[in-house]
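User: Sequence in, structure out. Go.
Assistant: Echoing your sequence, followed by the structure tokens.
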Amino acid sequence: MPSRSHASHASCTSDVLVIGGGIIGLVTAWRAAQRGLGTAVVDPAPGGGAARVAAGMLAPVTELHTGEQTLLALNLESARRYPDFAAELTELTGHGLGYRRSGTLAVALDADDRAQLRELHLLQRQSGLDTEWLSGRECRRLEPMLAPGVRGGLRVDGDHQIDPRRLSTALLAACERAGVVFHRVWAERLRVTGDRATGVVTADGGELGADRVVLAAGSRSGRLAGVPGAVVPPVRPVKGQVVRLTVPPRYAPFLSRTVRAVVRGGQVYLVPRENGELVIGATSEDLGWDTTVTAGGVYELLRDAHELVPGITELPLTETRAGLRPGTPDNAPLLGPTALPGLLLATGHHRNGVLLTPVTGDALAHALVTGELPPEARPFAASRFSADGSAAGRITEPGGERNAEPDAGRNARPGAGLGAGLSAGRNV
């Protein structure tokens, strides 16, 4: 069934209205429509958002951080669903997703970074994960383009990858086939009638009514006017910059799997696509709404990637781009019903948005039909924070409460910028 698009000058009503047309909003809309719910999406450019910048690593094992065992369980469950999810989406739409079970090799270049990687290996083993420690020579045997100075690494065959841009395109097509209505305009204000969310007022003055509203606007989720203070999601923008190179056929195969490293304490990754693209990322910067691509960010990415894989200097530079991840105080997603009847959240996925796409779509569809989250998603209920973002049933681990501080990753520094877009970039 073809999609319908409205300019929103008149009031329209649906069972479910999803605010935000990124991959999380689209998968929520698709799964809701599959459950027989009349579903609409409000977004001026559906298929955009942070996924246009993401590298698409499906890496629950190598993305593990201390204190994140509860999030690990959700990540692993979503990764388990990915093969069937990708096959269903491709069969339905005819769009390839670039889904590859190529694995990850995480390596270290000096003794300090090697010690840090050893700690990660120990944490992975304690968490019951299947990883293999390799010597530097064994790493180079797997990936001959690695620098001679590689001191050791972790082979993780269970971490995969997908192309987020192709995923967005396929989800948009799936929504269209399911009859999702697209309102290509900004949602300006949540409409609340009595004590219930009943739709939105759009930027062009129109009104869209709905029995239930899902706020899935990524880093913008905390900025929608009209949301009562007690249920405003504590979501902040976390800037990430990436670089894209192209591997000419004469250099193929350049890398056979995703390669990650800790270089001088900072993370860098190289993700080889099946179409010859090589994605290098990612910075992590708490700079408010600034989406400027900076010389310093690009320089550091290329510098660290060159130390890891010297051959990248021969590859054409095709794009630099910056986007905003939606971070929460504990860097875990906010899912399901809020204290305001009729309003649900699907936001705050931070660095795991692409990975958590399948499980988020399923969880929100379940919540929309039954009124509650499925068991695997309940630790991430939207109600776990109070209005000021402080703990209110926050996720805790066996070792205590999870770190609630902002990212302290590559280039992280205080400050706030002004900007409106979810992402901004330039072609080189």
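User: And one key feature?
Assistant: Helices lie at 23-34, 69-93, 111-126, 136-142, 164-177, 295-308, 357-370.
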